[in-house]
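Newbie here. two chains, one complex. Structure please?
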Amino acid sequence: VILELKDIIVASLFGGFINLDTRVLFQMMVSRPVVTAPLVGLVIGGGEGLVAGLKIGAVLELIWIKTLPIGASIPANASLASTLGVTTALFTEGDRDVVWIVALGLSLLFSSIFSFVDLKNRELNNGLVRVISSSIKGGRFWVLEGMNLVAILTTFAFGSLSLFLSIIVSVWFCSVCVGVMPVYMKAGVLIANPLVYLLAFGAAVEGLLNSKRLIPYFVAAFVAGGAAVLVR
Amino acid sequence: MMRWQDLLRVFVRSFSIQALWNPEGLQNGGFLYVISPALNRLYPEREEKKRAYIRHLESFNTHPYMANLIIGYTISKEEQVKRGGGKEGEISSIKRGMFGPLAVIGDTLFWAGLRPLLALLASILAIYGSVLGGVIFLILYNLIHIPTRFLGLISGYRLGDGVVRWIKRLQFKRISWHLKVSQVVVCGLGGGSFVCIDSESSPLLVPLYLSLGVLFVLGIRRGISPKVLFFSIIGICILVSSLLGG
């Protein structure tokens, strides 16, 4: 394992910061996997990180393309999951084409844990708003600003801490997995490489093709896309 | 009555409207945080300010980008109340009446429309190793997102009661349909070219990929999670590899 504590801390803090964009600050879509993963990859691992980030980000984005953060629903935390995926892929030694698939699988598994962390984070805000309410009744209006800052900082802390712990577990597991994998298993994972992209496209098609009226547009575009490649 | 500096402060704060999101009052804390510079300007007197603050701590939830329209309108109504031209209770019912429909508009146009369209484009380019898609995604998305927030606040404040008529004039259903068509066209182009590029070594792979793609779509539609499918693919490929002797 080519992992140092400094690297984990940098990845966790950077990932925790980008995660703020998911809900708490801006919502400018920097936290979408297709942006987060290449960005984190570039910062942590330079050119190699960028390549891993593009692969992992594209697949996670397509898989979660239809998830909507509507009302009280808490969708999979795509930002933290993509940061975890790309850092695991970078910090694990071994065949790159095998490592990125294992890292992708781990990031999909950990996304449920990140959603649970989100839920706890939001529940904590109940208490902060109660503090605001009682402070206003007492005429301490400045507490509103303070609690808003506390909410931002706790989200950052929850995100960074959960990333820190999950990176350690994920990199360890990925290293053990890839290390003990026999040749035939590695060959199997390599066969799965294009099928993972296909699954991601399948998830996107399923999410977006939600009306029969859209099918002709999709089929025509699919044929045109294929024909363009064949003509080239 | 409101200075432009106050509206600017409200606008800047609107970027963190969801920071205090909580299961009990939803965006109530965020709404109050965003609108508080305007309330401070309107109600310098302590008791009036206290009443106004408590008034805006009631439950509130809408699409974060569309919230500014309601905030702008609420500020104009608060000004009316201050001038003695309206009742405090009206403000709450206006907020309650607006946040649901605006949430639907925002979710449809942004979460289910623009975001997936640009994310698709970015993902397809990313699969072929290009960062350009991500850059285009961020630039185009925010060229629409940030003005929506800004114009929402200003329109809500300036138009006052006319804001409802303004919303009705927006042909969001037509825009939403065009976004959906664009999404499936981009998805089709990306999927079609991926299948053909990846099977260049052997044309026999095309029918295999097509059948598997249809299976994945049907599987997910039947409720099988993409996570389960992901691990099933890996398992089956390892099994095939072991049968073929690595």
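Moderator note: Chain B has a mean pLDDT of 91. The radius of gyration of chain B is 25 Å. Thread marked as resolved.
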